[in-house]
Amino acid sequence: MRLCKCGCGKEVDNRRNLYYSGHQYMLGKTHSIETRNKISRALTGIKFSDERKLKIKLTHKGMLGKHHSEESKKKMSISQTGKSLGRKHTEEAKNKIKEFYRLHPERHANHIMAQKGFISKPQKYLYNNVAKKFTDAIMEYPIITKKCTRYIDVAVPSKKLAFEFDGKQFHEGKEERDNIRQKEIENEGWKVYRFNENNLDNAESIISVI
């Protein structure tokens, strides 16, 4: 006798199967927390074959290319009631987050994504031009200011040079915020150079005379 691998205690009725066939009747239902934990532990370390992955992909098409009905949206909204979705962090939570990234700047999403190559084309173009002259150029470099940790698009730590690209999508109409950010960085002894769509093409000549 073989028992279902999820740990539910049911007997498997087919030698080729790992799980009890009655699980197919869970459609529209949900497992208890205890059962979910058992399933999670049972699946730990298991690797599916390419054939199995394809079968799962074809069977579970999910919501790809579809839209939730108004009824489904309402149900999801009700299920999220009382949770943090759409809410703002408290001041205490904000301070804890700032302190965490102050101590561990390498854990910030900006720094991680940059190391993996997920950056905008203008930022990469700017980096390539800076790196031609400064070999220690680095993207999304963390600078700890008195207020928080600021991440520089492209930095040259040895010279304390900061190069920023101000794209319209994130910077247009936010000049005051950017000026405050720049002042914080300058107060830490850094020189800031700003680029945008108007002067990015001249980045190489501008950087060459720094």
Distance between the termini: 77 Å
CATH architecture of the largest domain: 3-Layer(aba) Sandwich
What's the CATH superfamily of the largest domain, by name?
VSR Endonuclease
Strand content: 5-15%
Using only C-alpha atoms, the radius of gyration works out to 26 Å
Please tell me the overall pLDDT: 79
Main sheet: which strands, in order across? 1-2-3-4
Uncertain segments: none
SSE arrangement:
Elements: H1 33-43, H2 50-59, H3 70-79, H4 91-103, H5 109-115, H6 121-133, E1 138-144, E2 149-156, E3 161-165, H7 168-171, H8 175-186, E4 191-195, H9 203-208
Structural descriptors:
41% helix, 12% strand, Endonuclease, Chain A, alpha+beta, 210 residues, four-stranded mixed β-sheet, 9 helices, single chain, 2 domains
Give a summary of the structure in a few sentences.
With 210 residues, the protein is of the alpha+beta class. It contains nine helices and four strands; from the N terminus they run ααααααβββααβα.
